[in-house]
Amino acid sequence: MSDSLRGRRFHIRTFGCQMNENDSERIAGILAAAGAVPAAGEEDADIVILNTCAVRAKPVEKMASALGRLGRLKSGGRKVLIGVAGCVAQIEADALPARRPGVDFVAGPGAYPRLPKILARALDAPVVDTGRVPDWQEVPPSILARHSPVSAYVTIMEGCDNFCSYCIVPMARGREKSRPLVSIRAEVDGLIRAGAKEIQFLGQNVNSYRDPASGADFAALLTEMGRRPGPEWIRFVTSHPKDFGQPLIAAMASSPRICRQIHLPLQSGSSTVLARMNRGYTRAVYLDLVGRLRTRLPELCLSTDIIVGFPGETEAEFRETLSALEEIRFAAIFSFRYSPRPGTTAARMPDDVPLEIKRSRLIEAQALQKRLQTEFHRGLVGRTLRVLATGPAKKDPTAFSGRTEGGQIVNFRAGTDVTGSFLDVEITAAGPYSLRGQPV
Question: Who's near 362: CB < 8 A, 6+ residues apart?
């Protein structure tokens, strides 16, 4: 690796999903292994990297705003390298340096192992590298600069072959490729030695995982990880409903260490909208899956994604989404207005739902979910739940915060620093987005 990075200070700002957060840990580790050191912030950095998300228009707009602000760092003659990584880098690679003269380098997700060389070249001229290979590129897990000593991400696959009509992921991340099972085992073993209490397996569609050597699927991986010594909690994200079969349900039921919590994107409660989205299931199929999951896993907490205002969405179709929220009663949802993504099938459809209607539908869906979530949380008051303490509470540094097995945030007070510990907490109060409790 080049000595040009030795002692240089870097700062990474992350937009988007858990995969991007894990990628930022990987990027930081690669830079540190090349001799660079973390900076306190953008103003103190010699290298600033925006790790971007292209799934919706909003994070792309945030990236553009951040680049405008970063460009001013150079206005006083400061020598700072500014780079764009992640999904926007992959999709808009050639346009970025032209539209944003302050951008010194662009690195797609497949280029991260080459970052030291990219940065060395960027000292002389702008560099664009979005090359990727069809097979898995292993970065030694030992160099990852993990954000948390308590919870850890473990990426098991990347890319997607589903081609939902609205989704830009296949263009940004490429086709599906699975990580060798032997590498996953090695990373989990390292996390056990480091004292991690929780791991979360990551992939654009974890259900599609297949070990390149043995062909073992995700259900087999999950069953193995649930049986071998390891972190006390195991989670995974994201699952596609059409690929969630009985073997995976059985794998979840096989070990109490596999958290009874699933993120299962619904996207719409209308079968006709789901068909236009190319989701591969109907409302009835999704509801049947939820029924089978809750029969086998009675304590299961479900979260989901919802898109409102998809091309052609009628008022009746939107009402089907609201009725699905009422019927399923998710523990949490992530809801968004539809925004066309370049290169997708839906981008060629008429974006015919007016913005004001999209806004009003989103507000209505979120208001309904807030009510349902409040009712769910109030039902937890008086119960004692196991909580993994993750650190100080965001709004009250004198208190602690943690998460339940179902993913609910719990704030509580403790006499000593309990970060990284499991506690039994009696829930004493509930709001729509978090709980309060008292350790017992």
Answer: 308, 309, 335, 336, 337
d(CA 117, CA 369): 48
CA dist 332 and 370 (Å) reads 9
Helices (H) and strands (E) in the chain, counts: 13, 19
Q: Where are the domains of the chain?
A: 3-129, 144-377, 384-439
Q: Which CATH superfamily is domain 3-129 in?
A: Methylthiotransferase, N-terminal domain (3.40.50.12160)
The CA distance from 357 to 128, in Å, is 40
Alpha carbon distance 331, 241 (integer Å): 17
Tell me the pLDDT tens digit for each residue of 294-353.
Answer: 999 999 999 999 999 999 999 999 999 999 999 999 999 999 999 999 999 999 999 999
What are the two backbone dihedrals, phi and then psi, of residue 370, each rounded to the nearest 5 degrees?
A: -60, -40
Contact 319, 325 (CB under 8 A): no
Rounded Cα distance, 87 and 330, in Å: 29
- β-pairing verdict for 400-404 and 384-392: antiparallel
- Topology of domain 144-377 in CATH is pyruvate-formate lyase- activating enzyme (3.80.30)
Query: Per residue in 360-402, pLDDT tens?
Result: 999 999 999 999 999 999 999 999 999 999 999 998 989 999 9
Asked, colleague to colleague, whether 3-129 and 144-377 share their fold, the answer is no
Using left for φ > 0, alpha for ψ between -120 and 50, and beta otherwise, residue 163 falls in left
Burial of 232 (C-beta count, 10 Å sphere; 0-12/13-18/19+): middle
Fold classified for 384-439: OB fold (Dihydrolipoamide Acetyltransferase, E2P) (2.40.50)
User: How far, in Å, CA of 105 to CA of 123, rounded?
Assistant: 9
C-alpha to C-alpha distance for 238 and 235, rounded to whole angstroms: 10
Question: Taking Cα atoms as reference points, which of 328, 317, 358, 325 lies closest to residue 340?
Answer: 358
pTM above 0.85, yes or no: yes
